[in-house]
């Protein structure tokens, strides 16, 4: 079953699972698609095919929990990664975290591959959980809610033009 069929059969669960998989597993590095999915779902809500509030809740939950999961994958696998990675790569990653910190977490959801890798990197770098969860809660809300609402507004505008 592909994305489209999954969304047709169970739109809220489907959007949750797809965003969770994209942001919480390295799946998102290979098949990024969250931005277009969120915009399309907003359009479907504007056309009356989906309810907006449950859609916003499902997409936020998938984005947030996926990035939290990615963080914990980084925490868990970080030590093994450190043993295998080249020292210069580790130092570059640490500099990235020190330099961009909250900014990286806040912007990562808007960049397809970064939304999968940055949570992992933050976990592996030992960023404190309390600080990370606040950043990612805001980032997930801005990304998922912002793109669903943008898709909704654009579709409403198009529907108004054609009617």
- How much strand? under 5%
Total domains, how many?
A: 1
What is the helix fraction of residues, given as a range? over 70%
Please compute the radius of gyration using only Cα atoms.
17 Å
**Stretches where pLDDT falls below 50 for ≥5 residues?**
none
Distance between the termini: 34 Å
Task: Report mean pLDDT, rounded to a whole number.
Answer: 88
Count the strands? 0
Principal-axes shape call: elongated
Judged by helices, strands and strand pairing, the structural class is mainly alpha
Q: Count of helical segments?
A: 8
The largest β sheet comes out as: none
**H/E series, N to C?**
HHHHHHHH
Oligomer: single chain
Report on the architecture of this protein:
This protein has one domain. It has helices spanning 3-9, 11-24, 27-30, 34-46, 52-84, 87-107, 114-124, 129-162. Helices cover 84% and strands 0% of the residues. It is mainly alpha-helical and 163 residues long. The protein is elongated and about 60 Å long. The protein is built from eight helices and no strands. Helix 5 (52-84) crosses helix 7 (114-124) and helix 6 (87-107) packs across helix 8. The mean pLDDT is 88. Residues 36-152 form the VTT domain. It is found in: Cell membrane. InterPro entries: DedA-like, VTT_dom. It is a multi-pass membrane protein. This is SNARE associated Golgi protein-like protein.
